[in-house]
């Protein structure tokens, strides 16, 4: 993580700013706080909250607390420095009380080091002050606290650390140095249109077009209430069990990512997700709703599920400031970052099927990067066939880290954007986030129990190209689709097939050191992923066999086979060993030779390694 916002006195006209005097709560007994109350576990990678008593105000106050007040807190540990935006928190417990007024102002921080941390808080008041660059100034509160090591274990992200872009085609956890392969749900995109969230309802009179079910539909996730476990979070006397249970189920299938919109009104498909106090409001935020989102997102951290935050969709990407980076959009991004950027695994997506101009996209990405103290990766989703138009002008740009693909040509598109971005000196993380043909996507197991197409043409196609993983979209012609999915068990087989693929990569391949090498096999319809002379993975969608070019290597190789339909152990086929140099047949798989298989060819020392 890179430190942000070096103090710049006089960066904006001081005439616009005046410091507001605050009163403070008594210090927390567990830490030396100075002014402000510290809560949370004081451990590395854990969320720490500091809450200040400030002006009494409300969500609808004439003097807008979101726009005309500003809290920034700078945290330091030696040379490490982060400036983190804060937010108005109503009574400080709005998820449980539903309060829309109070005098609490809060910041969330995640320390990346053990030891003593100091903080210095600046509070400012003035017209549109929240939109100004960080200006420095005299602190109103200072304090310190000591951070110990985390006591969590995987898959909890607090055991792994921040998921970071590291100038490679895979994201990496800061603590464990493990590279991340994404596997999860792209649907329902309106995941946050949940009955138990404050102020959440459907604006649309839904038509019988296959996109949703019934009138004024929002989610209850009733089938997943049984997956809620004793000790799991709720709010307001037991609300939230459906959505928490749904996440528990997905994590039980070892999925690690969920794609969701935080704004889908102004013409969006679902018309049922927004962070504001009212669907007609753009400058005031619902403190209770956002606190409830935070409960859900924190549970995702615990389960090891990445937040794929999609900030808009094609239908509404001109809805804030007519598509520009203006007052509405800046405040929207600031609130999302202030409240949620502390989550350890998070990707900002500038928009689904995005139609903003290149200049607008760059402005959005740079604004997010300058506010986000943790430099979470920024990606962009496109419509099928528009990848070159959208992505080419962004290659090499310093504030975008990846491509969020929607395509039917997954293998080729993944290779293209990995190679093109590397040529520009800034390798992208390239994921498949939607199979094109919006009416189909991944069908329910009841309609397609084997999922041969998604498995062969998209899952393995992305991974074997050096892609960073997949999320599965559910087509609107089928039950439990992209807007009305209530039960993730509807695609249970797809989660299993995805898990088998990701497990193979993590268990058997040094995949961050390997590249696509389809030219090394004799067949046109298979994929080869290799570190030549050391290890080769060959995926054969139709089974049978192929020849592998070992070039001038004189090493001895073993040949094993992996079943992508069932997972499990490596098996022996008709050929057990190969010796270079030259071109050699890899032999036949162990059984069902006409089904897809993965051949693993590696040197003896790699076989012996753990």
Summarize the structure.
The chain is α/β, with parallel strands linked by helices. 19% of the residues lie in helices and 23% in strands. The protein has an 8-stranded parallel β-sheet with strand order 18-17-16-15-14-13-12-19. Strands 20-21-22-27-24-25 form a 6-stranded antiparallel β-sheet.
Topology:
Blueprint: E1 18-19, E2 37-39, E3 48-58, E4 69-77, E5 80-85, E6 87-88, H1 94-97, E7 101-109, E8 115-125, E9 141-147, E10 163-164, E11 172-173, E12 182-185, H2 241-252, E13 257-261, H3 287-303, E14 306-310, H4 327-340, E15 346-349, H5 358-371, E16 378-381, H6 387-391, E17 402-407, H7 410-423, E18 429-435, H8 452-463, E19 469-472, H9 492-508, E20 515-516, E21 527-531, E22 535-540, E23 547-549, E24 556-562, E25 577-579, E26 583-585, E27 597-603, H10 604-608
Parallel strand pairs: 12-13, 12-19, 13-14, 14-15, 15-16, 16-17, 17-18
Antiparallel strand pairs: 1-8, 2-3, 3-7, 4-5, 4-8, 6-7, 8-9, 10-11, 20-21, 21-22, 22-27, 23-26, 24-25, 24-27
Helix pairs in contact: 2-3, 7-8, 8-9
What would the keywords be for this entry?
610 residues, alpha/beta, Immunoglobulin-like, TIM Barrel, eight-stranded parallel beta sheet, 19% helix, globular, disordered N terminus
Termini separation (Å)?
30 Å
Share in β-strands:
15-25%
Radius of gyration: 25 Å
Q: What's the number of structural domains?
A: 3
How would you classify the helix and strand content by structural class?
A: alpha/beta
Low-confidence stretches: 1-34
Number of beta strands: 27
Mean pLDDT: 92
User: In CATH's first tier, which class of the largest domain applies?
Assistant: Alpha Beta
The dominant shape is globular
CATH architect. name of the largest domain: Alpha-Beta Barrel
Count, helices? 10
User: Order of strands across the widest beta sheet?
Assistant: 18-17-16-15-14-13-12-19
Main beta-sheet annotation? 8 strands, parallel
**What fold name stands as the CATH topology of the largest domain?**
TIM Barrel
- Share of residues in helices: 10-25%
CATH homologous superfamily label of the largest domain: Glycosidases
């Amino acid at each position: 993580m890179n430190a942000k916002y070096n103090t710049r006195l006089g960066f904006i006209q001081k005439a616009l700013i005046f410091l507001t005097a605050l009163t403070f709560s008594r210090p927390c007994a567990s830490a030396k706080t100075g002014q402000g109350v510290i809560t949370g576990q004081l451990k590395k990678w854990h969320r720490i909250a500091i809450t200040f008593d400030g002006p009494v105000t409300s969500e609808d106050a004439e003097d807008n607390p979101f726009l005309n007040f500003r809290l920034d807190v700078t945290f330091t540990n030696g040379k490490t420095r982060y400036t983190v935006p804060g937010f108005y928190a109503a009574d400080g417990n709005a998820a449980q009380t539903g309060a829309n007024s109070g005098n609490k102002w809060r910041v969330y921080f995640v320390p990346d080091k053990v030891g003593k941390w100091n903080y210095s808080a600046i509070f400012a008041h003035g017209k549109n002050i929240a939109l100004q660059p960080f200006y420095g100034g005299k602190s109103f509160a200072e304090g310190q606290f000591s951070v110990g090591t985390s006591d969590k274990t995987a898959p909890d992200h607090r055991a792994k650390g921040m998921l970071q872009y590291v100038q490679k085609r895979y994201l990496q956890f800061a603590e464990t140095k493990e590279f991340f392969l994404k596997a999860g749900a792209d649907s329902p995109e309106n995941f946050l249109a949940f009955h138990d969230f404050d102020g959440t309802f459907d604006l649309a009179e839904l038509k019988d077009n296959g996109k949703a079910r019934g009138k004024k539909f929002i989610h209850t996730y009733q089938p997943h209430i049984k997956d809620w476990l004793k000790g799991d979070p709720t709010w307001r006397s037991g609300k939230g069990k459906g959505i928490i249970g749904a996440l528990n189920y997905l994590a039980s299938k070892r999925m690690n990512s969920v794609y969701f919109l935080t704004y889908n009104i102004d013409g969006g498909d679902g018309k049922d997700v927004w962070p504001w106090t009212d669907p007609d409001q753009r400058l005031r935020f619902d403190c209770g709703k956002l606190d409830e989102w935070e409960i859900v997102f924190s549970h995702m951290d615990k389960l090891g599920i990445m937040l794929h935050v999609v900030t808009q969709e094609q239908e509404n990407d001109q809805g804030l400031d007519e598509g520009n980076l203006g007052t509405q959009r800046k405040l929207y991004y600031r609130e999302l970052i202030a409240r949620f950027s502390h989550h350890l695994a998070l990707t900002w997506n500038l928009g689904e099927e995005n139609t903003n101009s290149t200049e607008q996209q760059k402005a959005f990405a740079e604004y997010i990067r300058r506010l986000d103290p943790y430099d979470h990766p920024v990606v962009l989703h496109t419509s099928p066939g528009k990848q070159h138009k959208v992505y080419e002008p962004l290659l090499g740009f310093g504030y975008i880290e990846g491509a969020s693909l929607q395509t039917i040509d997954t293998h080729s598109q993944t290779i293209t954007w990995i190679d093109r971005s590397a040529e520009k000196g800034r390798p992208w993380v390239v994921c498949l986030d939607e199979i094109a043909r919006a009416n189909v996507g991944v069908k329910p197991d009841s309609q397609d129990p084997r999922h041969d197409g998604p498995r062969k043409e998209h899952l393995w196609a992305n991974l074997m190209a050096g892609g960073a993983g997949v999320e599965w979209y559910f087509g609107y012609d089928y039950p439990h689709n992209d807007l009305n999915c209530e039960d993730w068990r509807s695609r249970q087989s797809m989660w299993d097939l995805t898990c088998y693929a990701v497990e193979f990569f993590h268990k058997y391949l040094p995949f961050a050191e390997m590249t696509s090498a389809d030219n090394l096999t004799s067949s046109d319809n298979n994929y080869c992923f290799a570190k030549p002379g050391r290890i080769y993975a060959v995926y054969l969608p139709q089974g049978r066999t192929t020849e592998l070019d070992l070039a001038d290597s004189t090493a001895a190789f073993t040949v094993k086979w992996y079943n992508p339909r069932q997972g499990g152990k490596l098996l022996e086929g008709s050929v057990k060993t190969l010796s270079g140099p030259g071109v050699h047949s890899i032999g036949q798989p162990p059984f069902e030779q006409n089904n897809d298989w993965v051949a693993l060819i590696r040197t003896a020392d790699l076989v012996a390694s753990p």
